[in-house]
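Q: My labmate handed me this sequence with no annotations at all. I'd like to see what the chain might look like in three dimensions before we decide whether it's worth expressing. Could you predict it?
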Amino acid sequence: MSWILRYIRKHHVALLALFLALGGTSLAAANMINGKQIKPHSIPQNRLTNGAIDALRGSKGAKGAPGARGATGARGATGSGGVKGDTGAPGSALAYAYVNLDGSLDAANSKNVLSSLYTPGPGFYLYCLQVAVPFHNVVATQDEFSSTTHLEVAKGDPLTSCGGHAPGQVRGDATVEFSGGTKQGRFWVIFN
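A: Here is what I predict for the chain of 192 residues:
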């Protein structure tokens, strides 16, 4: 320990100057430099504390106005075909038929129509239909369009041209008349 005291006595002026130089600079920096004297962006972010970074950021501002709408993008590729849907519910028609030129019924396209009778007359063609179910109305549509043909449909037999039917089989009668033309045509008839 004596050697330390001898060293201090010999170098006391140098040591005092060293301590003043080191401590004095720190003391001056701590007491004399403030935030107004630091140049902007002169301290890197990795040298700042998290608290200092948060204080520099400030609070979140108000939401800005939306930008302009962008251009429409390119059309996408066609998707794969969907799966086949379920079979739909049956239609509401109680009976229907496709009637041929000779008055016969197309069985594959007919339901609940028992028979059709074809009676040609002067200037008209009459089809008498026997229906197996009660119905309220009947509609007929030509399968081939002709501007000179007129199609009339009636519930029952207003012209009494169809004759009688076997009892218990027929629930209703209908007549379809083509008139005003030179030929008759195939047609659809629907009963509801």
